[in-house]
Amino acid sequence: MRSIINEKNLNNKKILLRLDLNVPFKKDKITDTTRIDKILPTLNFLIKEKAKIIILSHVGRPKGKVVKELSLEPIREELQKKLNKKVKLISENVKEIKSKNFLNNYSEDILILENIRFYPEEEKNDNKFAEILSNLGDIYVNEAFSCSHRAHASINKVPKFLPSFSGLQLDLEVNSLNKIISEITRPITCIIGGSKISTKINVIKNLIPKFDNIIIAGGMANNFIEYFGNSVGKSIKEKNCDKIIEEIISLSKKEKCKIIYPEDVVVSKDLNGPPQKKQLSEILSDEMILDIGPKTIENISKIIDNSKTILWNGPAGYFENPIFSYGSIQIAKKIIENNKANKIFSVVGGGDTVSLINNLKAVNEFNFVSTAGGAFLEYLEGKNLPGITALN
User: Fold this and answer.
1) Residue 97 pLDDT more than 90?
2) 8 A C-beta contact, residue 191 and residue 300
3) Is residue 196 predicted with pLDDT exceeding 90?
4) What is the DSSP letter of 383?
5) Considering the chain, what percentage of its residues have pLDDT values greater than 70?
6) Which CATH number goes with the domain that contains 75?
7) DSSP states of 109-164 as a string?
């Protein structure tokens, strides 16, 4: 994988830059700019090198149709503001653009093609569509690690047609995850949340031989709580997971990896509270588990104190409601405390976890924060990501 940072002659080259600008919106306003902030170093590098930049990106899931609400216009405005450079949105149908000379029609050095997922060929990984895109540039750069697990045309096929490079942020993502996988300083702990255990089973099984502790949190912990004989009331849980849990427990014993799940919880009868701290044996049939309890927080804090490396993917509870974000916040604070004392190496990944630490204004308090969710986990699982494979 060649990094664009090492390429010497970019002056006046047309760079097809694949970004993931799929940021959250509320009434046309961007509510979290992390994904934009992360790619600014690559954009600034290309600007400094006097390259012409053509951005490829997507927002949402328009399913191959033009959806006005999913235009990249608000992102164009945000980029223009952050870069202090004019940025032009190109709304022409790319299939009708015959050559890269069309770029000479614009004085701006940064152009964004309209939402790439407006074209059905993108998600179909269409070869001809990729060739059409490649005709617009001299060089391709993948700066969208968070999309690199997708076999889509602008990620997987365009590199076939152009000299291709990784962006600065993609390099950071891969290097940080490689450090977790191969340069482990033990003891190493993984805190993994989310609602579905089946989507993360292979990740957990792949990490068990490499990790000392795996802390199961969030909705998937409810399956463990129920498996060990407790009621979870009307809490979110996945059906038919006993066999998966048995596999995890069996493998963890064999590999001497400790599996930790909540000892106590915070419950409520609905998502808006009021909250109640409870032992696992006290949960009623009309209650739902929405956060971890004080004993569990204390136990996790001790494990973090005794760890040298931490990987965190997924909040500990229903953090969207501040009432039930306490457990996740305490985990974040404990990791930050140890990070500041240079006691641990910490990597955080996944949209919800990033959103949580953004709310705490603590993104810079971890060694590395990945905006990727699926790609982050699949890379850790040991899968070949189509976007990375294409660059190699």
Assistant:
1) no
2) yes
3) no
4) P
5) 100
6) 3.40.50.1260
7) SEEEES-GGGSHHHHTT-HHHHHHHHTT-SEEEEE-GGGTTS--IIIIIGGGTS-E
Q: Judge if 191 and 166 occupy the same domain.
A: no
340, part of any domain: yes
Q: pLDDT (tens digit, 9 = 90+) per residue, 130-163?
A: 999 999 999 999 999 999 999 999 999 999 999 9
- Provide the domain count of the chain: 2
CA nearest to 310, candidates 215, 190, 203, 187: 190
Identify the residue whose tokens are 């093609």.
Answer: 113
Q: What does the pLDDT read at residue 100? A: 72
Please report which confidence band the pLDDT of residue 370 belongs to, taking 50, 70 and 90 as the band edges: confident
Question: Has residue 178 been placed in a domain?
Answer: no
Location of structure tokens 């404990």: 334
Does the pLDDT at position 207 exceed 90?
no
As a whole number, mean pLDDT of residues 190-212 equals: 84
Looking up tokens 């070869």 gives 127
Q: Would you say residue 392 lies in a domain?
A: no
- Give the domain extent around 127: 4-170
Six-digit token string for 285: 């049939």
Residues 147 and 261 both lie in one domain: no
In a domain, 283, yes or no: yes
Average model confidence (pLDDT) across the chain:
92
Residue 136 sits in the same domain as residue 228: no
Whole-angstrom distance, CA of residue 72 vs CA of residue 113:
8
